[in-house]
Structure formats: structure tokens, C-alpha cells
Design goal:
Number of helices: 11
Number of domains: 3
CATH class of the largest domain: Alpha Beta
Helix content: 10-25%
Shape: globular
Largest sheet: 8 strands, mixed
Structural class: alpha/beta
């Protein structure tokens, strides 16, 4: 039987939303199928226009709301429902925390087969700030902005098609123009709005994401807890005179910008990893404090986007590691070495391993900045570098801290962890599902004893989780 075309999919009437799935979409059950619905809340009764139907599940969007959940609150952002960033604005923060905690527990019990009797579960670490908590945002210029359904239905002439904002979820070639973003403190919004107005009044071209042509391409804004500010303007074409005038005018309007860079990117992709940002004004880096440690942040530095919650996350990891000052610690997927540096004073030595060479360079710089001499950072593929030869050379680990990407750890890495004989593993993850899978693969040799989730990104479904595992001794 052939699959139904999208236009032939039916409308499901008066469906009750009963829960929330791992990726943040609300769920309902119709017959023997699960229906995934974004921007709904448990307790809503809605009509759902299906957009996808498979053998075991369906996906759809809200067509009409018959009954609002008692848990709903009014979203504070005008872009809610279109922007893919803060999808849980319609849920009270306490409800968000409950759902995230439950998401972690469900993954650990169902996928990880973890007994909540044997493994202590600490309450989720809440965020003091639920808005304006990010220290980095990247915006995209587009000459043809995303039109809302209301704008299309009105059939009125749209005079301004320029956009400086975020990509619409699932559409690399469409950018939603942002009026106000609630993720980064001011003057982030003011800078973005000023730059858009300046560009339009000066007749500067916005980027065309289909043809890869246009003068203005991206805008990156970084800030620190102390209020320091870095701005990076990315141009799609090299026009030195126009670039100079724009940057001088930007700095004149916002003298609080301590670090102003620009990049010329005429490539087919938007990655800046192989390009050199040019300092136009101010100093070449910002400085962020985390406890007593200082971290320099340049235009391409790797750093947690919520510094306050990152500090809490690292404190939990240090607590779980149980260091006495005599241990050899391996920090897998070390990134820019923030965890390695953070725990270094409590260990004998720390070996950090990371795939991205540029991140390893930053890790070494961070260690040197803080006069840390007991860390070693190694660049390379984890499954190849983390091996018996390395452990024989640098010492067998007493403790392993691992903070892999969302996909989790490669089976070869899990095998090496088991072979290492480390007494303790501290597993930090941004994806509790793959974390639970990996913990199950470790279960013959290691048992989880305590875990704690951390809310790094309020208003979203994302959650970090830290688990301490101890070696099973026969």
C-alpha cells in the first residue's frame, strides 16, 4: 500500500494531549498510535491536522484548541510557535523542571535498565534565570524572509522582505526576522535591530541563502557575566571601504562593545572554522570567570552558552568524581578543557582528549592562563587515541569523566573504558537517551550509584544529566 500524500491526511478532532515526548513535542494516543504535536501542553484538547502518518506513529499540528490545559501560561515571545528555540514557553517553569526530571528517569529506567532503588536520584538543578541566560547568539541575514501564515493569507503586499534572525526549523534557506529575542541580555537586541536598519538605509545587500550571494551574511554576539561584549560581523563579500564605515558606525553607536571583529566568508557554507576573524576595534578576547578560574573567549572559542549553569554542572561532576588529589583523571571529549581545568586542583593529573584540534588549542591556552601544570590535552579520534598504549604511557585512570556529543559514545570507547579498570566514571550528557544506552552497555562492569539533572536551557526540552558509576568488584 502506498503512503498517503500529506494533503490527503485527515483532521483528528478533539484529541486530548496526555504527555510530553523526549524531543519536547507533546503526545496523544489515537487508537493504537502515538501522535506527536508541537506547542501543545498536557491537558489540552485540540484538533490535530496530520502532517505525517507512519505505521506506529503520526505527527501533526494544532488546528483548533477546544480546551486549554490548566498548566498553560501565556508565551512571552511574539515568535512562539514559529521559532524553534523556546518551544516550552507555554509551560510554567516548575512544570518544565518536572517534565525534564521525568524524561531523565524514564530514559534511565527504560533504556538503561537502572533501578531507582539502587541509584539515588537527586532533584534537578534549576536555573535562577529563565530568560536572557545565553552568552552567545548567531543571527543570519536573508534578503527573503519567512512569511507568517497570517501575512500569506492576507494577500497584502509585503514591503520589507529583509530578515536578520534565526533559521526556521527544517528550512536552511528560510530565515525568520526577529523582533525581540529573550535568550541574550541587552544590548543584543538593540545591536541586531540597529544593524538591520543601518543596512537597509545604506542599501547594503542581505545574503541570498539559495545562491550564496550578498554582502551581509551573519552576526554573532557574545557576552560575559561581567557584561563584556563581543560582536562579530560576517560578510559574504570583501568590500574594505564599506566594511570599515559600517564597523566604525556600529562601534560609535555601541561603545560598550569591547571586542569587535569581522570575517569575510565567500564560501558555500557558513562555517568559520577555517577562516580568520579580523579584529577591528578593542581587545582580541573576552574573559569569563568560573569560580576562581579565568577563561578567555575569542570569536571562535568553545564555551558553554549558559555560564552560570555550566558552573553548577561542573561542581556536580567534581563532587561525583570524589577526588582526593592523588588520582589520574581522563577527561574524554574535553572540548576547550573547561571540566579538565575545573577539576585539576583536586587531581594528581588530568588527561583531556578531544577530536577538534582547535578546541585542544583553546584547552591548552585555558590551562596556561590559570597556571595549571598538571593537565595534558591530546587531539584525535576518541576511539583511536584512547587506547592501551596511551594509558600505559600516561597512567591508568582512577576516574574517567566523559561528556560526549548527543550521539553518545562509540562502542569501541565503551570497550576501552571497561578495559581501563577505572574505579569511577562520571558521565555528563546532553542526551539522556544515548547516555542511558551507554550505561546499559557498561552495566556488566559498572553500576550507577547517583545521578542529577541540570537545567541548562530553560523554555526548551533540553536537559543535561550527570551520572556517577562505580566499578563492580567481583
Amino acid at each position: 500500500m502506498s503512503r498517503k500524500k500529506k494533503k490527503d491526511l485527515p483532521l483528528l478532532e478533539k484529541v486530548e494531549i496526555t504527555g510530553v515526548a523526549a524531543e519536547g513535542k507533546a503526545i496523544a494516543r489515537v487508537g493504537d498510535k502515538v501522535v506527536f504535536v508541537p506547542f501543545a501542553a498536557p491537558g489540552d484538547v485540540v484538533d490535530v491536522k496530520l502532517t505525517r502518518s507512519r505505521r506506529k506513529f503520526m505527527e501533526g499540528r494544532i488546528q483548533q484548541i477546544h480546551k486549554l490545559s490548566a498548566d498553560r501560561v501565556e508565551p512571552f515571545c511574539v515568535h512562539f510557535g514559529i521559532c524553534g528555540g523556546c518551544r516550552w514557553q507555554h509551560l510554567p517553569y516548575e512544570t518544565q523542571l518536572e517534565l525534564k526530571q521525568q524524561q531523565v528517569v524514564d530514559n534511565m529506567t527504560r533504556i538503561g535498565k537502572i533501578s531507582t532503588v539502587q541509584c539515588a536520584i537527586r532533584p534537578i538543578e534549576r536555573s535562577e534565570k529563565t530568560t536572557f541566560y545565553r552568552n552567545k547568539l548567531e543571527f543570519t541575514f536573508s534578503e527573503k524572509r519567512w512569511l507568517t501564515k497570517e501575512e500569506i493569507d492576507s494577500k497584502a503586499e509585503v514591503k520589507d522582505m529583509h530578515a536578520l534572525g534565526f533559521h526556521v526549523p527544517g528550512r536552511f534557506d528560510k530565515v525568520m526576522d526577529v523582533e525581540k529575542c529573550w535568550l541574550q541580555p541587552e544590548p543584543s537586541n538593540a545591536i541586531r535591530q540597529w544593524l538591520k536598519s543601518y543596512a537597509i538605509s545604506s542599501g547594503l545587500s542581505f545574503f541570498n541563502l539559495s545562491t550564496n550571494e550578498g554582502f551581509l551574511r551573519n552576526l554573532i554576539i557574545r557576552n560575559t557575566l561581567k557584561g563584556e561584549l563581543m560582536v562579530v560581523v560576517v560578510f559574504g563579500e570583501d568590500n574594505p571601504k564599506v566594511i570599515k564605515v559600517l564597523l566604525e558606525s556600529l562601534h560609535s553607536h555601541f561603545p560598550e562593545i569591547q571586542s569587535l571583529f569581522y570575517v569575510v566568508n565567500a564560501k558555500q557554507n557558513s562555517s568559520l572554522s577555517d577562516l580568520n576573524p579580523i579584529l577591528a576595534k578593542g581587545k582580541p578576547f573576552l574573559e569569563e570567570l568560573m569560580g576562581t578560574l579565568r577563561f578567555r573567549i575569542g570569536p571562535k572559542s568553545f564555551f558553554q552558552t549558559n555560564a552560570v549553569q555550566a558552573h553548577k554542572l561542573y561542581e556536580i561532576a567534581l563532587d561525583f568524581a570524589g577526588l582526593t588529589g592523588k588520582e589520574t583523571v581522563y577527561d574524554l571529549y574535553t572540548g576547550a578543557g573547561t571540566i579538565a581545568c575545573f577539576i585539576s586542583s583536586a587531581a594528581d593529573k588530568v588527561i583531556g582528549i578531544e577530536y577538534i584540534e582547535e578546541a585542544v588549542v583553546h584547552a591548552r591556552e585555558n590551562a596556561a592562563l590559570n597556571n595549571i601544570t598538571n593537565t595534558t590535552f591530546i587531539a584525535g579520534d576518541m576511539a583511536r587515541v584512547f587506547n592501551t598504549e596511551l594509558m600505559d604511557r600516561c597512567g591508568r585512570p582512577h576516574v574517567i569523566i566523559t561528556d560526549p556529543p548527543r550521539a553518545g559514545m562509540h562502542p569501541d570507547v565503551i570497550g576501552r573504558i571497561i578495559e581501563s579498570g577505572a574505579d569511577t566514571i562520571v558521565y555528563v550528557s546532553c542526551n539522556p537517551a544515548t547516555q542511558a544506552r551507554d550505561i546499559q552497555l557498561l552495566s556488566a562492569s559498572y553500576r550507577p550509584v547517583v545521578m542529577q539533572a541540570v537545567d541548562m536551557f530553560p523554555q526548551t526540552h533540553h536537559v543535561e544529566n550527570v551520572v556517577k558509576l562505580e566499578r563492580i568488584r567481583n
